[in-house]
Every structure is written in structure tokens, then in C-alpha cells.
């Protein structure tokens, strides 16, 4: 058990080192110009080790985000089962995701750097769009399943789209202004709260 815990901590440190190295190199010399071998060297691991964690450069940007998304449906179902209403469950989900980002070794500042890269690199934007569509589809389906008396599939999808759209638009405005990590976290909460309040007014 102790050995397993140590192994997981080493893996977590390696993932964080790879992400830090990748973002730093992508920002300094460009995404297209950076190779996975350079990222591995900067992180202090072999290229073979890097490929044990990711399949390529895109995954260096998206891997952590995929982990958080994988938990979102389970968390939303858990909050709904606890008796929270739909708007409150979405608030709780957002709070948990923001807290996890802040608690990660990479932290919110590095997450912001990732987001900037995604907005600047066409192939990353394309994958981010597909990822966001999948997240919204799955979260909408979970919301509908958790509150069938409140939502049909269409209204659940619209509610989730409103929440994610509000957050994404607000974050991009802050990033365009060169906002800090704290400002981004604040605007995520504000946009999420406004979307949740609108949902409460809609469903009563």
C-alpha cells in the first residue's frame, strides 16, 4: 500500500514536470517548433517515459483537463443524489472543478497558460472545440438523468450550454486583458453563478 502511494506520487510529479516543461517551451519557442524530445529533456525524463504518460504534444496540453472532465458526470450525479437542486448541483460542480485546478501541482496560473496556447494554436483550438462539445453533451445527459422531472434532453442541453458558454466567454475577456489567475477564478465563479441564477429563474 505504501509503495503504491509512493508510485502514484512519483507519477503525479512526473506529469506535472512534463506539463510545466511543455507549456514553458511552447510559449518560448512555439508549439510547432517544439518536439516531444525537447519536452522530455526539459522535464528530466526520457522520451520513452514521456510516451508512457501521453501520446503526443496535444496530450501534454489536454491530459489534465481530460481527467477533470472524466469526473464531472460522477460528481454531478453525486450532488444530485445528495438532494441539491439542479442549479445548486451545477454550482457545486463548478466549485469542485475550480478547487481541483487550484490544488493541482500545475495550479491555476499554468492552467491559464494552457488556455492561452489553446486560443493561439489552430490544432489545439480544434481539439478544444470537440472536447467542449463532448463535455456539454455528457453533462447535459447527466443533468437530464438526475432531474427528469425538471428537464427533458433539450432543456438540459441548453442549461449546460448556457453555463459553459458564459464561463468560456468571460474567461476569454479576462485573458485578453492580461488578467491574473485570481481574476480568472473570480470570473469563472461569477459567470457560473449568473448562469445558475438564470437556470433557477427558468425552472422555478
From TrEMBL:
Pfam families: TetR_N
UniProt keyword list: DNA-binding, Transcription, Transcription regulation
InterPro entries named in the record: Homeodomain-like_sf, HTH-type_TetR-like_transc_reg, HTH_TetR
Keyword check for Cell membrane: no
DNA-binding region: 35-54
HTH tetR-type domain segment(s): 12-72
MF annotations from Gene Ontology: DNA-binding transcription factor activity; transcription cis-regulatory region binding
Protein name: TetR family transcriptional regulator
Amino acid at each position: 500500500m505504501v509503495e503504491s502511494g509512493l508510485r502514484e506520487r512519483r507519477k503525479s510529479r512526473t506529469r506535472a514536470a512534463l506539463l510545466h516543461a511543455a507549456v514553458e517551451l511552447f510559449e518560448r519557442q512555439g508549439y510547432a517548433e517544439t518536439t516531444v524530445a525537447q519536452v522530455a529533456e526539459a522535464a528530466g525524463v526520457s522520451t520513452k517515459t514521456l510516451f508512457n504518460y501521453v501520446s503526443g504534444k496535444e496530450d501534454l496540453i489536454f491530459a489534465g483537463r481530460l481527467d477533470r472532465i472524466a469526473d464531472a458526470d460522477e460528481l454531478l450525479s453525486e450532488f444530485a443524489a445528495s438532494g441539491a437542486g439542479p442549479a445548486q448541483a451545477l454550482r457545486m460542480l463548478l466549485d469542485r472543478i475550480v478547487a481541483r485546478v487550484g490544488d493541482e501541482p500545475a495550479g491555476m496560473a499554468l492552467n491559464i497558460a494552457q488556455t492561452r496556447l489553446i486560443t493561439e494554436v489552430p490544432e489545439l483550438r480544434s481539439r478544444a472545440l470537440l472536447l467542449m462539445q463532448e463535455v456539454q453533451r455528457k453533462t447535459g445527459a447527466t443533468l437530464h438523468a438526475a432531474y427528469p422531472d425538471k428537464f427533458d434532453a433539450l432543456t438540459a442541453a441548453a442549461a449546460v450550454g448556457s453555463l459553459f458558454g458564459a464561463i468560456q466567454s468571460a474567461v476569454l475577456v479576462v485573458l485578453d486583458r492580461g488578467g491574473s489567475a485570481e481574476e480568472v477564478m473570480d470570473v469563472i465563479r461569477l459567470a457560473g453563478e449568473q448562469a445558475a441564477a438564470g437556470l433557477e429563474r427558468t425552472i422555478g
